[in-house]
Amino acid sequence: MNFRITKFPVDNPLSLAAKVAKQPARLLYPDSELGANGDEVTKQGTIDPFDSKIFWDKK
Predict the structure, then answer these.
(1) Torsion from C-alpha of 11, 54, 26, 7, nearest 10 degrees
(2) Residue 54 per-residue DSSP state
(3) Residue 4 within any structural domain of the chain
C-alpha cells in the first residue's frame, strides 16, 4: 500500500488474475465486517475501489 503514497515503483505489477488493469485507490471493508460493525460499513456508501480516492489522496 505504500505505492499509493509514494507512487514508487512506477511499474508496480498487477496480478495476472486482475479483472481491472488498474491499481486500487482504496480498500473496502471485508464482508465479515458487516456482522461485527455493520453501521460503519454502511457509512462508507457506494465506493468504487479503483476510482474513489481516500480522503488524504487528493492528487
Answers:
(1) 10
(2) P
(3) yes
* Residue 17 included in any domain: no
Q: Is a pLDDT exceeding 70 seen at residue 4?
A: no
Instruction: Compute the distance between CA of residue 47 and CA of residue 39 in angstroms, rounded to an integer.
Output: 16
Three-state DSSP at 16 gives coil
Please indicate, yes or no, if residue 56 is contained in any of the structural domains.
no
What would the pLDDT profile of 24-59 be if each residue is shown by its tens digit? 777 777 888 888 888 888 887 788 878 887 777 766
In a domain, 57, yes or no: no
Number of domains in the chain: 1
**Looking up cell 474513489, which residue turns up?**
52
Q: Are 52 and 26 in contact (CB under 8 A)?
A: yes
45: left (phi over 0), alpha (psi -120 to 50) or beta: left
